[in-house]
Structures are given as C-alpha cells and as structure tokens.
Amino acid sequence: MDGTINTGTASMVTIYFDLDGTLTNPKPGITRSLQCALERLNIPVPSEDELTWCIGPPLHASLKKLTGSDELADRALLLYRERFSDIGLFENEAYAGIIDTLTTIAATDQRMFVATSKPAVYATRIVEHFGLKPYFERVFGSELDGTRVDKRDLLRYALDEAKVDPATAIMIGDRSHDVVGARTNGMTAIGVLYGYGSEAELRDAGAHHICAAHSELLSHCVA
Questions:
Q1: pTM of the complete model
Q2: Which among 195, 114, 200 has a CA at the least distance from the CA of 162?
Q3: Active site includes 86?
C-alpha cells in the first residue's frame, strides 16, 4: 500500500503511540471533568457514555461543539483543567496487556515514543504514574496554549526532534486524527479497535493496518 513500510521485514522501525484510547483508558477522568465544566457553566450535561466521542480529538474543538462558541469553549477548557489536573488525570488505567506488548517490543531495541494531542504536562504525569515511562524515550504532547494540538503538527515536530525518517516510522492510535497525522507525514498508520474510534472511522481516514488487540500490533512492530 502506498506510503507504508514493510513491517514484516527485519528492518528496525520507530514507533509512536497515542496515549488516550491506545495505551490507557481515560474515560472516567475525561468525561467527569467535562461534566464538571459544563455543569459550572449551566450547560446541559450529557452522560459519561454520551461524551466518549470527546476522547482523542483536540479538546477545545469538542468543547466548542458542546458549548456552541469559542468563548464558552475557552471558559470550559479552564474549568475542565481545574478538575483534570488534580483528579481526572488519575481516573484512568493502563489497558490490560499493554505492558506485555511494550515489553516485547522493547526487547527488540526499537525506539518508542508517545505522541498525544493531550498537553505534554499532563501526558508525562500519566505515563509516569501508570509505569509506562521506562518504555519510551520521550513523551510528545501539545502545549497548554494549543500549540501542536493538531496531530499533523505534533507528529511533524516529534519526527524532527527525534531525527526519525518518517518512511521508517509507525503511528499507532485509535482515532482518525492519528491516522491523518501519520499519513500527512509519510508514516505508516495503524489503527486499534479497543479504543474509542470505530473501524469505519479508521478505514475512512486511511489506516494502513487495523488491529483489534495489542497482541496483533506485534506482527507490525516486531521483526
């Protein structure tokens, strides 16, 4: 397929993992922090399940859809962060089996990074808290002011910073923006189905490969 690397060869690849919906399941922390922000703005509050579509994409854009304006989205984002930075951050869990998958990949000495639209200041704390830090060279995330919140910009930055040839790089994520970001930068895009994006979403975005479980990632990441 165009733009893909042959992940079945013995050549080394560099692997970028999304965080939310790929390494960890952040649903309670994100949805409850969203509910708190909306409640404080006197905006109707959807259920946790009704807010799962907000997991993964840049948050300000999702808040604009929920509140109806940039101004309210700005206020909601500040309120969201008040709760998330102290409580919601840790209402989260590493997916069962992900440690085994990362351990197997790490044994091959391939480089691994985290690349998330979440602000790096939060993503780094999450990766450390859930014992994932030893597997990754660096955590790439956005800035609190919105810099690099677009996955295309983030991955371009992450590739440049790590001095990685995108033709030898893989991006693994659960949402369409992960796939679009990868393809825009000439990387191989692998979608996972255990997160918050559907198979149709990932295929429509142009995922080169789709995996239902962590174990299936190994056939693309381990020579």
A1: 0.91
A2: 114
A3: no
